[in-house]
Structures are given as C-alpha cells and as structure tokens.
Amino acid sequence: MSQQSPIQWLETALGRLAYRIDGPEGGIPLLLLQRFRGTIDDWDPAFIAAISADRRVVRFDSAGIGRSEGQVPDTIAGMAAIAAEIVAQLSLTQVDVLGWSLGGVVAQQFTLDFPHLVRRLIVAGSSPGPVADGPQQHPRVPQVMTKSENDDQDFLFLFYPETESAVAHGRASLARIRAQADLGPKTSALGFMGQVKAISTWPGVLHRVNELRLPILVANGAHDVMLPAYRSYVLSQQAPDAKLILYPDAGHAFLFQVIDDFAREIDQFLS
Predict the structure, then answer these.
(1) Can you tell me the distance from the alpha carbon of 247 to that of 256, in angstroms, rounded to the nearest whole number?
(2) Does the pLDDT value for residue 1 go beyond 70?
(3) What distances in angstroms separate CA 31 from CA 23, 55, 61, 120, 123, one per listed residue?
(4) Which of 35, 97, 153, 236 is the most buried (most CB within 10 A)?
(5) Tens-place pLDDT, residues 239-257
(6) Residue 250 carries which DSSP code?
C-alpha cells in the first residue's frame, strides 16, 4: 500500500479546512464525500489506494468535522456549498464525485446546486431521500447510530452482513483504518447534531430527479441495514442516465469489502 498522503489546509471563510490529495496529476479529479460522522481518516486506505492508482482523488473534512475548523451546517445544501468551496479553492473547473452514505446525499444536492462542476456522479450506499414503500432500515439502526461511541460490534452490525466472510472483511477494514498514522479527532457531539438535523430536514431529490441528466453510477450492498438497497433501485429507476450495481453478501460498507471489484467499476465508469 502506498504511503499515506499528507494533510493539507485551505484557508476559507468557514475556517481552515483539512484535505488530502492522492494519485497522479492530470485528468478530472474524483472528489470524495464522507459518511455520517466519518472524517478524512475513516476512508479505508486500501480503497483509497485502489481508486487513486490512475487518477487524482481529493478527500476532505467538511466544516466542523475532524481536523477542520468551523461549524457543521444544519442543511444538506449547506454541506454541498462547502464541497463547492473546496472545488473553487483548489482551482478545479470540474470534478467527478463519489458520495458514500450521507456523502451520497450531499453529492446529489451538490450536483443539483452546482451542475456545471460535476461531470459524473457515483452514489454509494445512499438514498434519494424519503422512500415510503419497500424495505425500511433495521429497527436497531437508530439506537446504534446515535451512541456517543461505536465499538467494533456496532460498526460490524451497521456496515456488514452477519456472515463469516462479510464479518472477516469488516474486521480487516477496521484494522486498516485504525493502523493509519496520526489519526485526527472524531466528529464532535455538536457536529453529530448538525448532521442529524440536516438529514432529517432534507426533502430528497426525487421531485427534481429529472435534472440529474449526467451519467450516474448507483451502488450498494444488497443487505444494507441502514439505507436499504431498494432506495438505490428507486434512484436508478428515476434518474435519466443511471446504472445500478448491487453486491451480494455485502452491506453499507460494500466499498471496503469488494474493493477491487468496485474500483474496477469506478474506473470503467469514469473512463
């Protein structure tokens, strides 16, 4: 695995924001948007290495998250505006975007609000907003998600199916994430509350889905207990140009479980 890229800083009106850049220069960069309560350090380094082998990958701590200063916005549109600020500060004219979980929600809003900035969109383990029909999230999810600290068993429940293979992949991913040097702070209670408010008040994109006319790759684990794969299906059916991939024996963190397979899909989609 390649050496971890250094933390860099952007001075913005929101405060100083932390970011990392991986991969070679040239081409359209891939901007990563992180999950609920996740920081720049919660991307699996094996996943980063796989997707940045042939392209530049940008990831960051949004305002009030991890190492970054400022306050977490209490709207998804506010979070999307911070992503746009990162793009502007890095003097990028256009990006591809991969959003995971909450990041997938922000990515869809970002694409609607700043369509000129986005060439292609990847929505991973996420949702187009409220979906009344179909499977709903596991009833234990709210209780586990809202703990002040999540242990290994919590992460495994939230992110991976309860099969021997999936759990083994989950434990390996958690070990890789924790083995990184110089880990930054976790999301604070104040940041957590801002994210909860933003998620709970977001109307979703289904009423505007026809505006998402760019190529979209929608992916999830078939057994996601937090954001059921049916929601990925709904987005893929209603967006004008979307491809859906569901991975068997995988859940919310499928992207850290089937790294090589998903990295190939990303490369094919973005190429």
Answers:
(1) 12
(2) no
(3) 12, 11, 12, 11, 12
(4) 97
(5) 999 999 999 999 999 999 9
(6) -
Neighbours of 173 (CB within 10 A): 23
Q: At what angle do helices 102-113 and 189-201 cross, to 10 degrees?
A: 60
CA torsion, ordered 171, 122, 12, 192, to nearest 10 deg: -50
Q: Give 121-143 pLDDT, tens digit per residue.
A: 999 999 999 999 999 999 999 99
Question: 93 in helix, strand or coil?
Answer: coil
| Structural tokens at position 117 | 């900035």
φ and ψ at 57, to 5 degrees?
A: -125, 130
Measured at the CA of 43, the angle between CA 37 and CA 46, to 5 degrees, comes to 160
| E strand or H helix that includes residue 264 | helix 259-270
CA distance 51 to 45: 10
Global pTM reads: 0.97
User: Hey, what domains does the chain have and what are their CATH numbers?
Assistant: 8-270 (3.40.50.1820)
Q: How far apart are CA 189 and CA 98, in angstroms?
A: 26
Residue 267's nearest CA partner among 97, 20, 54 is 54
Distance CA 55, CA 28 (A): 8
Write down the residue that tokens 């809003």 correspond to.
Answer: 109
Q: In what order do the strands lie in the sheet with 8-12?
A: 8-12, 15-22, 57-60, 30-33, 95-100, 118-124, 216-221, 242-247
Q: For the chain, how big is the Rg over CA atoms in Å? A: 17
What CA dihedral angle connects 214, 126, 71 and 74, to 10 degrees? 90
Q: DSSP class of residue 223?
A: T
